Amino acid sequence: MRIVLxxxxxxxxxxxxxxxxxxEDILAVYTPPDGPGGRSxxxxxxxxxxxxxxxxxxxxxxxxxxxxxxxxxxxxxxxxFVTDIxxxxxxxxxxxxxxxxxxxxxxxxxxxxxxxxxxIMGDTRTGLxxxxxxxxxxTGPILLxxxxxxxxxxxxxxxxxxxxxxxxxxxIVESIEWIKKGKAPKIPQDEAGATxxxxxxxxxxxIDWQAPAGSVYNxxxxxxxxxxxxxxxxxxxxxxYGPTLVREPADxxxxxxxxxxxxGMHIAVSGGVLTVAKVKHGMGKKIAASEFSTEKGLEAGxxxxxx
Length: 307
What we know:
By secondary structure, this protein is of the alpha/beta class. It is 26% helix and 26% strand.
């Protein structure tokens, strides 16, 4: 099948590799422009290694970009981890349509940070959707979905890399097979169950130490590895990673450091003890919590609330 692939990062590169292994005819690859210092996207590098045409438009609103895309005459366009805004007119160019990967069970968790919010909100399951984009934000009809359990210790990173990444690649391949057979469904999304959340960035990543233990724990898990849930320490953001939670009656003020050892930094929360294995302070690197405490002189008995 004549396919145009739009995507980025390791996921896009793996989709490209897999489709080529399946014998698909990849006409061209679209990736974001190079990053600072000329750093190229993994999908761009993978396409270049296969000597495939690579397009890196700064915007898809340009008529010249649309004309070049249309001239490729694709049968199908596959969107594999796309953060750019793609105008609706692109979707109808391929004779068999356009499909898009989204890491949630649509219509729940529409938006750019679907995995983060599933964890932050305490969901016990999530999944992925392959859908037919229609110009809205993750609003097109569903082709197929796969469900994944969210474990109590899962982070956004573990969910993505251990489950939603490999399962997503397989789901795209499966979807293409259904399309080839002419049996790919278009199931309307149930708007009654739709949710949309904003990007998971520092605007939502600040820790409220007065919140229940589970809420604090879920925020840290949901912001791990990016952007890193944070509090402030000595005037700079202190971000937490690798959390665990023991629920027990609270006898210390939330935010108080109880101990620091080889397991990490143990912090009182409302209804339990939170342990974080690694931290990142200001512009520094992510390091073990015990190493940070030694470097910065952080000791048990200090409070991380209200710095």
